[in-house]
Design goal:
mainly alpha; single chain; elongated
């Protein structure tokens, strides 16, 4: 979202943007799940990715939590709406190429929602489901 759009963001738009950011964070978690399955026999690669992506996920969750608190404050007190307009989202902050990771995360999250529409995000995946997610998402990268 560009700075001009954020300047005029409504409470409803901010709430949608929070949901979008939460989807990105979930997409990063999906990306790790995919790497974990693909590189199951390469523990060093998996561990390096786990550390890096864990930090990205943690920062994203903290940012979304902060945004949700600002949203609640703005809903209770109209004078605090300016706070949501000044808030900036930083998807995949801390990753060496945040734009690329954001694109991957968005694609994985959208694919997940399309092929597993009513599935709880807390539910574990089978390897077969991860391969299905990879296969479906790969068509979006082509």
């Amino acid at each position: 979202m560009n700075a001009q759009a954020e300047k005029h963001m409504s409470i409803a738009d901010f709430e949608k943007e929070i949901e979008h950011q939460e989807d990105i964070v979930y997409g990063v978690a999906l990306y790790f799940e995919c790497l974990h399955v693909i590189h199951a026999d390469k523990t060093a690669i998996v561990e390096t990715c786990r550390k890096q992506l864990r930090n990205v996920i943690q920062k994203g969750n903290e940012r979304a939590k902060h945004a949700r608190q600002l949203l609640e404050d703005a809903k209770r007190d109209s004078e605090k709406v300016a706070l949501i307009r000044r808030f900036t989202f930083a998807p995949c902050e801390g990753y060496q190429n945040p734009e690329l990771m954001t694109q991957r995360a968005e694609t994985l999250a959208q694919t997940y929602m399309r092929i597993f529409p009513n599935r709880s995000r807390a539910q574990d995946f089978t390897d077969e489901e991860i391969f299905q997610l990879i296969e479906e998402a790969s068509t979006a990268f082509e």
